[in-house]
């Protein structure tokens, strides 16, 4: 890497990153696309390949929005694309391996079609080692930009089109909040809405505080205006996005307004369903529980990552809660919302995790009875504290633990779904089922997938469905009638 490029990077530095909280955040408005770039994509197509979480999926919608303002149109075929961008995920090693595989594979296309702009963005771009590897081994890549540089895309694309050199712009320091970014949403019923960016939790295994920067909350008036606008356009559901939504508002210096307040205001907005992800158990406060218990458009589903059921592991993970505190929170939530559906994330095989410590996770799962869980084997991430921890647990043992955990969860999920047999649930009908066009498919308030036979005009609205065949991951049912869902507020 040359000196000029070096200026763009700093490797993950925990000490420096923890200092960052004090800086003020400014809110900027997205500039119009520069005059000379507004028609640059006319007659040309773009393709974005997205890996990772909902935040990335939504970032891709922003990138698509910017490209469309430059005249580009979407395509599903690599061969017809003038621009291919890979929006990457860094959370685990296998996510990164897939991206490198994809970049390698696209070399042939780039060689055949030198005018193609091949770019990489997202979380992997924020890692110095990844950028170095691309600079050294994948010179066919034209453009790399980071998670804080999305609004700069028109300028970067212009540079990439004009220069023969690889264009790299990765701001290692998170910038400000950019409002009014254009968005090309993939779905006409359900929308993602950012409420905050970044994470200051620094769980010891996690790369996110480095790739996504410090916590910055969008102003509530901007978030609420976006949701109202989506409701006006006919959207039926929004999912509020943040790496740790429970920290929403902690960074405001001009007001005392937190996530519970935001949800209370959402409750008054005329959109039928409001979800949020992801919660951190540590910051989940009583006010929020009280607000969620008002229901209405606030659905009865909370994704609450536990990560482990053992106190020693939770401590070295830096989760800042104990098993007891977690269980206390769960029981408070269940008391306030008895039919709540809880889902979680679990990491097995943390450095040094013993069989007994793992069994504490199993017992936590039995005690809480999550409806479903995303389960992962720990994957060391360069620059995070856990990557330096001594790990004497063989990979085979980790795999076997994951398998046991998954078997247990399957059993619980099946039991939970079985309890819905003969019940009538409200389904937001999203479309035809992927497997059978005569079957409709949609989701309950608790985000469970339901398949049933019914007339096509139900698509886009709500239906009441009686569950006749509960399965482990999905529910089958029969249509009992259209449902009207009250829209209150403005
Ligand atoms: N290894 C394995 N799983 C991880 N997660 C985050 N970082 C890692 C890692 N290094 C999991 C956590 C988190 C979810 C999004 O991904 O469970 O909640
Ligand atoms: Fe990563 Fe979530 Fe922990 Fe933040 S709260 S460091 S995003 S696991």
From TrEMBL:
GO terms for cellular component: cytosol. PROSITE patterns: MTTASE_N (PS51449), MTTASE_RADICAL (PS01278), RADICAL_SAM (PS51918), TRAM (PS50926). Residues 44-162 form the MTTase N-terminal domain. Gene3D superfamilies: Methylthiotransferase, N-terminal domain, tm_1862 like domain. Its EC number is 2.8.4.3. [4Fe-4S] cluster 2 binds at residues 199, 203, 206. [4Fe-4S] cluster 1 binds at residues 53, 89, 123. Keywords: 4Fe-4S, Cytoplasm, Iron, Iron-sulfur, Metal-binding, S-adenosyl-L-methionine, Transferase, tRNA processing. Binds 2 [4Fe-4S] clusters. One cluster is coordinated with 3 cysteines and an exchangeable S-adenosyl-L-methionine. It is found in: Cytoplasm. It comes from the Bacteria. Residues 418-481 form the TRAM domain. It catalyses: N(6)-dimethylallyladenosine(37) in tRNA + (sulfur carrier)-SH + AH2 + 2 S-adenosyl-L-methionine = 2-methylsulfanyl-N(6)-dimethylallyladenosine(37) in tRNA + (sulfur carrier)-H + 5'-deoxyadenosine + L-methionine + A + S-adenosyl-L-homocysteine + 2 H(+). Its cofactor is [4Fe-4S] cluster. Its main location: cytoplasm. InterPro entries: Elp3/MiaA/NifB-like_rSAM (IPR006638), Methylthiotransferase (IPR005839), Methylthiotransferase_CS (IPR020612), Methylthiotransferase_N (IPR013848), Methylthiotransferase_N_sf (IPR038135), MiaB_methiolase (IPR006463), rSAM (IPR007197), rSAM_horseshoe (IPR023404). One of its GO terms (molecular function) is metal ion binding. Residues 185-415 form the Radical SAM core domain. Belongs to the methylthiotransferase family. MiaB subfamily. Monomer. HAMAP family: tRNA_metthiotr_MiaB. Catalyzes the methylthiolation of N6-(dimethylallyl)adenosine (i(6)A), leading to the formation of 2-methylthio-N6-(dimethylallyl)adenosine (ms(2)i(6)A) at position 37 in tRNAs that read codons beginning with uridine. This is tRNA-2-methylthio-N(6)-dimethylallyladenosine synthase. It comes from Melghirimyces thermohalophilus. The lineage of its organism: Bacteria, Bacillati, Bacillota, Bacilli, Bacillales. The gene is miaB.
């Amino acid at each position: 890497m040359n000196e000029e490029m070096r200026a763009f990077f700093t490797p993950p530095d925990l000490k420096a990153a923890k200092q960052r909280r004090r800086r003020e955040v400014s809110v900027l408005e997205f500039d119009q696309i520069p005059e000379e770039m507004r028609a640059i994509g006319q007659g040309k197509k773009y393709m974005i390949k997205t890996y990772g979480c909902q935040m990335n999926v939504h970032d891709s919608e922003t990138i698509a929005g910017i490209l469309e303002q430059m005249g580009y149109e979407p395509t599903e075929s690599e061969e017809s694309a003038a621009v291919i961008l890979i929006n990457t995920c860094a959370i685990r090693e296998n996510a990164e391996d897939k991206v490198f595989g994809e970049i390698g594979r696209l070399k042939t296309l780039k060689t055949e079609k030198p005018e193609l702009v091949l770019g990489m963005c997202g979380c992997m771009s924020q890692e110095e080692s990844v950028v170095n590897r691309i600079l050294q081994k994948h010179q066919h890549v034209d453009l790399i930009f980071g998670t804080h540089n999305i609004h700069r895309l028109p300028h970067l694309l212009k540079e990439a089109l004009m220069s023969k050199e690889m264009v790299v712009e990765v701001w290692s320091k998170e910038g400000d909040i950019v409002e009014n970014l254009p968005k090309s949403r993939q779905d006409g019923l359900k929308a993602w809405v950012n409420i905050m960016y970044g994470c200051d939790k620094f769980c010891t295994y996690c790369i996110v505080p480095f790739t996504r920067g410090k916590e910055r909350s969008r102003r509530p008036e901007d978030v609420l205006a976006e949701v109202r606008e989506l409701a006006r356009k006919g959207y039926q559901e929004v999912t509020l996005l943040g790496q740790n939504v429970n920290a929403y508002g902690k960074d405001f210096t001009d007001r005392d307004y937190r996530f519970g307040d935001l949800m209370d205001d959402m409750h008054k907005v005329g959109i039928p369903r409001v979800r949020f992800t992801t919660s951190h158990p540590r910051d989940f406060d009583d006010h929020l529980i009280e607000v969620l218990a008002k229901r209405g458009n606030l659905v009865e589903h909370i994704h609450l990552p536990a990560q482990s059921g053992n106190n020693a592991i939770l401590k070295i993970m830096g989760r800042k809660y104990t098993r007891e505190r977690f269980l206390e929170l769960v029981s408070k939530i269940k008391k306030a919302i008895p039919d709540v559906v809880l889902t979680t994330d679990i990491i097995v095989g943390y450095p040094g995790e013993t069989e007994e410590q793992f069994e504490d996770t199993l017992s936590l799962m039995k005690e809480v009875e999550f409806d479903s869980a995303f389960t992962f084997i720990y994957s060391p991430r360069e620059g995070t504290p856990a990557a330096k921890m001594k790990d004497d647990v063989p990979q085979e043992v980790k795999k076997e633990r994951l398998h046991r955990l998954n078997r247990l969860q399957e059993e619980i999920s099946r039991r939970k779904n079985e309890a819905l047999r003969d019940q009538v649930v409200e389904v937001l009908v999203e479309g035809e089922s992927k497997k059978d066009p005569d079957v409709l498919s949609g989701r309950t308030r608790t985000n469970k997938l339901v398949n049933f036979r019914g007339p096509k005009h139900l698509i886009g609205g709500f239906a009441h469905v009686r569950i006749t065949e509960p399965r482990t991951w999905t529910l089958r049912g029969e249509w009992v009638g259209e449902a009207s869902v009250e829209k209150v507020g403005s």
